[in-house]
Amino acid sequence: MSERVWSDVDSYIDERLIGPDPVLQAALRDSAAAGLPSIAVTAAQGKMLHLLARIHGARRILEVGTLGGYSTIWLGRALPPDGRLITLELNPAYAQVASVNIDRAALGGSVEVIVGPAGESLRGLLAGDAEPFDLVFIDADKKSTPEYFAIALEMSRPGTVIVVDNVVRDGALIDADSSDSGVQGMRVFHDLLAGDARVSATTIQTVGGKGYDGFTLVLVDQPARTGPGG
Ligand code: SAH
Ligand code: DHB
Ligand code: MG
Prior knowledge:
This protein is 42% helix and 20% strand. The chain is built from eight helices and seven strands; from the N terminus they run H-H-H-E-H-E-H-E-H-E-H-E-H-E-E. It is an alpha/beta fold and 230 residues long. It has a seven-stranded mixed beta sheet, sandwiched between helices. The N and C termini lie far apart (49 Å). The chain has a single domain (3-220), classed as Vaccinia Virus protein VP39 (Rossmann fold). It binds S-adenosyl-L-homocysteine, 3,4-dihydroxybenzoic acid and magnesium ion (MG). Magnesium ion binds next to loops. Residues 39, 65, 139, 165-166 line the site of 3,4-dihydroxybenzoic acid (DHB).
């Protein structure tokens, strides 16, 4: 089974279930024109994130890793009128492209792009003691996934859903000796999940237009912010 077939099936899914979407297409076009890497989620994956957010009735969404705002738009479109999405991006030039794309999607009023290293931004949000998030999508530098997940847990409530992208990486996930810090990050992340009774999780392998990878779906049963002895 070749990558060609995976891409062709993604095209079929796009045609049947997603259809032309000028706003999303413009977001990808302008991201490419500005030199951003072509590493956004696929349309089928974006729609899955969108459906998850709607199924969950998510009012507060946190995204780590904005790029050009493609996944941001899919998630932002799932928000109710009073909903909010905060998305974190290290690269100011990427964040600028994303802001234009998000405005074109008429989501400027509900989406906030915070520029800077996500670890710092997350600690700022945590210190701000904001309401917990209903859904978190972690999709930034892969080596820092365990750190981002730990802080996301602290900003969770029972029932918060956390989705983590790019966890399988062509199967490298099972290579204990991998020299790739991103792969090691995803292995540490799985070790965290395995040892944490407060969460329920599974990882799903995927193929498609972006190759062979996968995502982890986490349900928070009990948040990290517990009292002494809790
Ligand atoms: N979620 C996007 C893709 C994100 S790609 C989509 O599917 O459309 C990963 C992004 O994480 C890149 O834009 C990269 O600049 C950003 N990133 C990398 N390291 C980061 C860090 N330390 N803090 C915040 N963002 C970071
Ligand atoms: C990379 C990052 C992503 O979020 C992704 O979906 C694919 C690749 C990367 O940094 O290579
Ligand atoms: Mg990704």
